[in-house]
Every structure is written in structure tokens, then in C-alpha cells.
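Retry 2 of 3 after timeout on previous attempt. Resubmitting C-alpha cells to design endpoint.
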């Protein structure tokens, strides 16, 4: 396979791009669109993210063995768009396994994987930040509006500090101390 793609490159960039790369990228886009649909229907968020990470790594590995290195950003862009970008809203909002569940259950590794995959697409981190902000506001609102908690001010303040510590730890361990998440 390497010899064939090398021959196409040697015949000229337009031969490689027009006769091989463009049809290859179109077929890859179709493949990943269908596969990601199957993944999302049969997986929870954490499993889907593991599969997405695996697919991305497989494509990068495939390029080093079979394709012209100039194809790497193009095929990774296809995988990122089809497997991550087009599915990220569904992923973060998944019942019992999406972002909020991961935050509540301290799933640092899964949150880190989500962060690393989502940062590869243009609005990925914003998608995480928006839902996380909404979750933090709801959590804070529940604490402040709970009449039982207000009876013991020391416990109330301690609970607020515990929540802050929890999410500081998430940002540190899973989101690489990203300043935009700290804000």
C-alpha cells in the first residue's frame, strides 16, 4: 500500500490528491458518520469517548504506515468532525453517563478524555464549559435555597467550600488547569 501511495505522490501532488486522497477522505467521512451513529446508539458516553480516541489514534497510525504525511491533518479533521464534533452535544447531555454524571461521580479519567477530544474541535471546550457552568449554578442554587442547610451556617459554608474543592480538583486533574474553566 505504501508503494502505491508513494507512486501516486511521485506522479504529482494533483494525481495523489485527485485520484486517491479526495475519494479516500469522502469514504472515510461516510464510514465514520455511520460508525459514530452506531457507537452512540450502543454506548454510554465514557465508552464512546474511548472508541473515539482509539479511532483517532488508529488513523494517525495508518497514515505513518500507508499514506503521505500531508494527509494526516486532513484525515484527522474528518475523524474529529464526524466522531467528535457532530456528536458532542449528544455526548455531554447523555442521561446517566454524560458530563454531569461524570462530574457528580468524579470520573476524572473520562472527563480528561472528553477534554482532550473536545479541544480538537472548534466549539468543543465551549460545549463542556457551558454545561458545566449550568450544572455548577444549579448545584449552588440548590445549596443556597435549601432551608435545612441555612439553619447551620458553618455546615452551609463548609458544603460550599467542599463543592469548590471538588471542581477545582476536576479542573486540575481532568482539564489541565485550563484557566477558562477556572473562571
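Retry 2 succeeded. Sequence:
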Amino acid at each position: 500500500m505504501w508503494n502505491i501511495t508513494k507512486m501516486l505522490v511521485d506522479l504529482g501532488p494533483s494525481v495523489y490528491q485527485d485520484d486517491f486522497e479526495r475519494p479516500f477522505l469522502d469514504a472515510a467521512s461516510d464510514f465514520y458518520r455511520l460508525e459514530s451513529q452506531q457507537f452512540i446508539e450502543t454506548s454510554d458516553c465514557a465508552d464512546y469517548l474511548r472508541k473515539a480516541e482509539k479511532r483517532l489514534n488508529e488513523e494517525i497510525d495508518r497514515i505513518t504506515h500507508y499514506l503521505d504525511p500531508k494527509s494526516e491533518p486532513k484525515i484527522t479533521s474528518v475523524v474529529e468532525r464526524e466522531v467528535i464534533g457532530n456528536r458532542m452535544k449528544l455526548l455531554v447531555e447523555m442521561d446517566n453517563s454524560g458530563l454531569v454524571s461524570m462530574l457528580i461521580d468524579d470520573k476524572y479519567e473520562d472527563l480528561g478524555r472528553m477534554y482532550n477530544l473536545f479541544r480538537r474541535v472548534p466549539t468543543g471546550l465551549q460545549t463542556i464549559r457551558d454545561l458545566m457552568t449550568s450544572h455548577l449554578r444549579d448545584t449552588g442554587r440548590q445549596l443556597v435555597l435549601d432551608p435545612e442547610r441555612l439553619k447551620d451556617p458553618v455546615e452551609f459554608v463548609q458544603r460550599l467550600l467542599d463543592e469548590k474543592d471538588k471542581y477545582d480538583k476536576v479542573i486540575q486533574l481532568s482539564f489541565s488547569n485550563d484557566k477558562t474553566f477556572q473562571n
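Attempt log closed. The chain is about 80% helix and 0% strand.
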